[in-house]
Amino acid sequence: MSSKQSKSAWLTGAKGKWITLAVWVVLAVLLNVIWPGVNQEEINNSPNLKEDKPSVQAGAVAAEEFPGGQGTPALVVWHRSGGLTDEDLKQVQQLAGAIGEKPLPEQKFVVPLDQIPLPALKAQLSEDGSTIVSTILFNSSAETDQLKTSLEQFKQLVKSTLGADPFSIKDADGGELTARVTGPVGISIDATGLFKNADFSLLLSTVVLVLVILLLIYRSPILALIPIVAVGFAYLVVSPILGIMAHEGWIIADSQSISIMTVLLFGAGTDYCLFLISRFRQLLHEEESKGHALLRALTSSSGAIAMSGFTVVLSLFSLLLAEYGSYHRFAVPFGVSILIMGIASLTLVPALLSIIGRASFWPFIPRTPEMEEQRARDKGRSTPKRKEAKKRIGSLVVRRPLVVCIAAIVLLGGLASFSPQIKYTYDILSSFPKDMESREGYDLIGKQFSPGELAPAKLMVNTRGKNTDLKQRLADLDYVDKVAEPQQGKENPEILAYDIEFSMNPYSIEAIDHIPDLRKTAEAALQDAGVASPEDAVWISGQTATQYDTKVTGDRDTSVIIPVVIGLITLLLLVYLRSVVATVYLIATVILSYFSALGLGWLIIHYGLGADAIQGAIPLYAFVFLVALGEDYNIFMISSIWEKRKHMPLKEAVKEGVSETGAVITSAGIILAGTFAVLASLPIQVLVQFGIITALGVLLDTFLVRPFLVPAITVLLGRWAFWPGKAEMKQESETAAPSNHG
Fold first, then answer.
1. What digits encode the pLDDT tens for the residues 244-253?
2. Average confidence (pLDDT) over 159-181
3. Which pLDDT band, with edges at 50, 70 and 90, does 49 fall under?
4. Residue 647, class by beta-carbon neighbours within 10 Å (0-12 exposed, 13-18 middle, 19+ buried)?
5. Angle at which helices 221-247 and 325-356 cross, to 10°
6. In this structure, are residues 621 and 293 in contact, taking their beta carbons and an 8 Å threshold?
7. Residue 480: which H helix or E strand, with range?
8. What DSSP character marks residue 253?
């Protein structure tokens, strides 16, 4: 018995199966007792950009030189259709005075509207007199939960002062006084709230979906529960491990990464369980002993499962190379969860199958022909005829490999051709439901004022004592709506700051693309004024500058991580398959499938759902998931073909391999696509878009790449598919020759 078989035998043996189960139970209980769960250690306001990024450096200059205007702003938008009354304005002034005297928690500064005479205050109204904006600055270090608590306290103060709650009035055109909180604070609170509310609904929806799909496909309640139990144990182990890592400061866990981790764990985890379960069921038709069947199933499938798991884990850990914080924070939670799930699928699942045995598949219990005959005799019935598995797809691929290959490439290539047309956005507001408070407040500002008022940019220059015409140059820019009078720096009076309002959405890609031009304009003004090294004397802070750095950093991460993921998967495939040719076409097909998913996703999201752009982070996330998970299916199927070609002709091996793995990969693909599609049910556009694209990619891999394209290429290449490894296959002529005469 080989070492692999001896280890497998121990896991599924009379004592080993119970010991394995006991170990998982003890781990799940003990770790949750001694370590905190990851949900208890979430931090949702971690910076995404490093300190060496221009916008972060500009923020540091602004904090030192212009401390009065520093902080994270909350913009309170007061609105009454028909016009704000004098009483409304006096109440707004009263509220500003109240929190000026007794600041809210984490409040740093409030614009003193109470000190502005009423006629001067009216000058700040919108053109129709219906809207005014009051600003509250909070500490930049404040966490989102602290900001939320502070604003809730402010809303209670508003309610007691006004005798009504303007934040709860839905109809902004009904003639009543309404209020909405927007700006960076409002956006941050709403974004975090969406993900927090999504946690439970995501978990429940995912579990129900997996259960329903398993019941529909396998029609066995016990079998449907086995993957759920395995994933549940894996989650109970993963959560405290990530929790202690976050508690010790080794990683940062945020609600977004934890929410999507749950989906990945159930989707990919169930897939790994099914790879083993399907093989076990198949062998129960050949082996009377459930132990022998399980031992053979575990021995033959463990390599493919482990290889698939390593592929995903290494791909996810490649996100550690990212400079952008959100990407970087995804790596460990995702990688660790898949690693633990892979271990569970190779230890806990075999133990459960060994304990339950054939009853796992009740009421459709697989038996050998001899067992079926004996059972029929015992019941006085005739032996039921066993249905032969249909091999239509495998037969088609073997008969017409060139036609199948060309058709698949044309279809995938046609979809991929739409991917260059995709437009991207970094506007977080576009991810929010239209009735969300921060979005409603922003829409009011955009309608009544300049949309740039939502998040002004602060342009700072070190004039080194020179006079410049920078203010006029800035005002002449067609994308600038308003330029405030320059302010002198507190520590260095030669540093001047200009607050700039864009004439467009400051979160839009158009505004973001103007940041380099804004910098060039300032540098040119300094250079013309005789300032030496002007490139070192310009800083731009604010949300638009931050989003520009986000875009640049994201582009850099994409250019680094994608080649690394491809390289890692290539190395793993080379080691596992020992074939350069097979590795090349397996990688190529999955990459083609990825671009096809992007193209098809764009057609649905843009033309079907009416979105003008998709979130800029989606392509990298989708690539890591689709290439790694898509390669899983290729590995599982090609492993079957590789094994069979040792004792049968290649075409027969392809036909048998496609047929043998077809059902399990189809069911696994449906489950994985379904779990990603759950994301599309949430009221967060970035998750909707990510869910649609990843689900489409999984379905393309499941129903086109795996059953048609990869086997067709394998048949066309023949012996060269294994180069430079040894072919180790039966000669095609032994069985193929007679058919040529038939």
1. 999 998 999 8
2. 90
3. very high
4. exposed
5. 140
6. no
7. strand 480-483
8. B
Percent of the chain with pLDDT over 70: 93
Assigned token pair, 141: 């270090």
* Residue 94 burial (10 A CB sphere; 0-12, 13-18, 19+): middle
Contact of 314 with 208, CB cutoff 8 Å: no
608: CB partners within 8 A, 6+ apart = none
Peptide bond preceding 227 in cis form (omega within 30 of 0): no
Alpha-carbon dihedral sign for residues 202, 207, 211, 213: positive
CB 580 within 8 A of CB 724: yes
- Amino acid letter for position 189: I
Rounded Cα distance, 526 and 523, in Å: 5
Contact 32, 26 (CB under 8 A): no
Burial of 610 (C-beta count, 10 Å sphere; 0-12/13-18/19+): exposed
For residue 144, what are the CA distances in angstroms to 40, 165, 243, 439, 499? 15, 23, 19, 17, 26
pLDDT of residue 195: 67
Token pair listed for 187: 């956006």
Q: What percent helix, strand, coil does the chain show, rounded to 5?
A: 70, 5, 25
Identify which of 565, 576, 662 has the alpha carbon closest to the alpha carbon of residue 623: 565
CA 285 to CA 358: how far, in whole Å? 10
The chain-wide mean pLDDT, for the chain, equals: 87
The token pair that represents 677 in the structure block: 């599609």
Q: What are phi and psi of 730, to 5 degrees?
A: -70, 145
User: What integer pLDDT is reported at residue 385 of this predicted model?
Assistant: 64
Q: Which amino acid is at 712?
A: A
- Reply yes or no on whether the pLDDT at 729 is more than 50: no
Distance (Å, rounded) from C-alpha 418 to C-alpha 435? 32
Phi, psi of 647 (to 5 degrees): -130, 20
Report yes or no: 106 and 185 within 8 Å, Cβ to Cβ. no
Helix (H) or strand (E) holding 57: helix 54-65
Beta-bridge partner residues of 424? 614
CA of 166: how far to CAs of 77, 128, 150, 157, 184, in Å? 11, 20, 17, 12, 21
pTM: 0.84
Torsion of CA 522, 523, 526, 527, to 10 degrees: -150
Q: Identity (one letter) of the amino acid at 323?
A: E
Question: Residue 469 corresponds to which amino acid?
Answer: D
Which class for 325: exposed (0-12), middle (13-18), buried (19 or more C-beta within 10 A)? middle
Separation in Å, CA 624 to CA 377, 510, 548: 55, 28, 23
Residue 338 contacts residue 632 (beta carbons within 8 Å): no
